[in-house]
């Protein structure tokens, strides 16, 4: 076999840029719907709970399709998986524009949702197949751009609605996603096929569960805090509770994007990934303690301080999440297996998102002591998990 040159094995810059920007457009197209909920209720003649299901579909898609996407990437490489994600996103977001009823919109949204795990779950295979030296950096940038897209969609949604209306907003996000999708589709021509044989499936199975609890706990608690924020603040008779709760959620997305990019870069270029993870999980647990005490009325701070807490909770929490995710990719003994490692992590995280918030979240009002104890218990287990696992890095 002819040895590939260093230039041939270097990561294609065009592909890397297109990949992370496409992640941004997926996040924006998804969460632009958050401020559109009243318009969706009116246009589709559906209830609030039915419309909110649109925002939850990506979590169920991650649970169902993470591992199939990773096994497909392991077998045939990342190109067919990512191209399928692009096509599904194109079709699904286009279908939302012309959906005449709730059922049709649900089908279109479900199609678009499947693109999410196909794009994100095999990220370990992506960074390994393009021969990136700094695995943590691209992993972090992908997650960070996804979170920035979510924040941008939530922030820009009202402006787009005011300027373009309901249909125009859906068209705008579809066009942006489609243009970047075409560029990503073409850039995949630069990506080399795997240059190693497929080894036995018993070596990786569902990936390593060593870091799964970290992803599960951070994802579940952050989603739970956003979901109960308005209800908890209203219960405490906080002024402008609805607006403050929405701001806290947006700040969490913003902080998540910053943390997911910043700390993997620091770990790649300064080293000591394990120490970074230990510091971040401790800070995440401390800030989560502040949040649960605030939400249960035990400890009260000003709105400005609470906003800072949520911003830094997003930074620290998803900094730790991104480092743990990239560590699972690096743990794979073969390039093909890296996508399965990250898919297992993503699947576990979204199981937590699907199960824990609806079970634990309502207790913030009904049984506040249990809410505080349960949340801290989950994060303490995650902290112990990190301190044990960093010994193996």
Plain-language structure description:
This protein has 393 residues and is mostly helical. It is built from 15 helices and no strands. The N terminus is likely disordered.
Rg calculated over all Cα atoms: 21 Å
**Pattern of helices and strands:** HHHHHHHHHHHHHHH
Q: Mind summarizing the main beta sheet?
A: none
Distance between the termini: 33 Å
- Class based on secondary structure composition and strand pairing: mainly alpha
Overall outline: globular
Unreliable sequence segments? 1-10
Short structural description:
Helices cover 80% and strands 0% of the residues. By secondary structure, the protein is mostly helical.
Overview features:
0% strand; mainly alpha; 15 helices; 393 residues
Mind sketching the topology for me?
Elements: H1 6-9, H2 13-31, H3 37-44, H4 48-76, H5 78-98, H6 102-120, H7 123-129, H8 135-187, H9 212-235, H10 241-270, H11 273-295, H12 303-331, H13 338-360, H14 363-366, H15 368-389
């Amino acid at each position: 076999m002819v040895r590939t040159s260093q230039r041939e094995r270097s990561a294609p810059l065009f592909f890397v840029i297109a990949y992370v920007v496409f992640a941004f457009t997926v996040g924006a197209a998804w969460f632009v719907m958050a401020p559109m909920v009243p318009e969706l209720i009116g246009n589709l003649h559906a209830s609030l709970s039915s419309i909110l299901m649109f925002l939850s579909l990506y979590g169920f898609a991650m649970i169902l399709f993470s591992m199939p996407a990773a096994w497909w990437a392991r077998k045939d490489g990342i190109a067919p998986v990512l191209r399928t994600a692009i096509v599904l996103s194109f079709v699904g977001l286009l279908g939302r524009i012309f959906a005449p009823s709730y059922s049709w919109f649900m089908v279109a949204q479900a199609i678009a949702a499947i693109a999410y795990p196909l794009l994100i779950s095999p990220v370990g295979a992506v960074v390994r197949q393009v021969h990136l030296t700094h695995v943590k950096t691209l992993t972090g940038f992908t997650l960070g751009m996804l979170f920035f897209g979510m924040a941008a969609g939530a922030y820009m949604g009202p402006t787009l609605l005011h300027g373009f209306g309901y249909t125009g907003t859906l068209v705008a996000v579809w066009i942006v996603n489609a243009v970047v999708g075409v560029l990503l589709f073409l850039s995949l021509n630069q990506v080399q096929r795997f240059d190693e044989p497929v080894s036995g499936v018993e070596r990786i199975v569902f990936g390593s569960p060593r870091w799964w609890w970290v992803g599960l706990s951070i994802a579940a608690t952050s989603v739970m805090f956003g979901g109960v924020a308005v209800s908890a603040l209203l219960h405490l008779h906080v002024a402008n509770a609805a607006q403050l709760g929405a701001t806290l959620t947006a700040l969490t997305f913003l902080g998540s994007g910053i943390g997911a990019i910043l700390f993997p870069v620091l770990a790649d270029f300064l080293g000591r990934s394990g120490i970074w993870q230990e510091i971040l999980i401790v800070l995440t647990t401390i800030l989560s303690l502040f949040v649960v005490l605030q939400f249960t009325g035990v400890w009260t701070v000003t709105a400005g301080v609470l906003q800072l807490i949520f911003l830094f909770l997003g930074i620290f929490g998803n900094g730790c999440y991104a480092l743990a995710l990239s560590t699972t990719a690096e743990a794979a003994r073969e390039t093909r297996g890296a996508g399965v490692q990250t898919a297992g992590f993503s699947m576990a995280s979204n199981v937590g998102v699907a199960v824990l918030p609806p079970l634990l979240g309502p207790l913030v009002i009904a049984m506040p002591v249990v809410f505080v104890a349960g949340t801290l218990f989950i994060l303490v287990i995650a902290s112990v998990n990190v301190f044990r696992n960093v010994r193996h890095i």
